[in-house]
Specification:
The chain is mainly α. The protein has 4 helices and no strands. The protein is 53% helix and 0% strand. The radius of gyration is 19 Å and the shape is extended.
């Protein structure tokens, strides 16, 4: 009986998490108003500045964290890479403590 309760809770948690997944990007590979789509290098830049743009997007409607007019997987990879570099200290130069 205990395993049944745990299994139900896990199934419920997985269902709730699956319900939060984003849908498809319908404007992928479609140029924005300026006629361009964001690629890998722009993705890296957007990822690096994502903490700043997130805070600004809370107060300004004209700022978004993520460019939806992108070329797909390469932009996504650049965004995650840029955010990872910034958030893990790669760009900030985190120093290891000496022991």
């Amino acid at each position: 009986m205990q395993y049944l309760k745990i299994g139900f809770i896990v199934l419920l948690a997985l269902t709730l998490l699956a319900a939060c997944t984003p849908g498809p990007n319908t404007v992928e590979d479609i140029p924005s108003g300026n006629g361009k789509t964001a690629g890998f290098l722009i993705g890296i830049w957007h990822g690096m500045i994502s903490p700043i743009t997130f805070v600004l997007s809370l107060f300004m409607d004209s700022i978004n964290v993520y460019e939806v007019h992108n070329n797909g997987n390469w932009y996504n990879f650049g965004f995650v890479l840029g955010a990872g570099l910034f958030l893990t200290g790669g760009i900030l130069g985190r120093k290891k403590s000496e022991r």
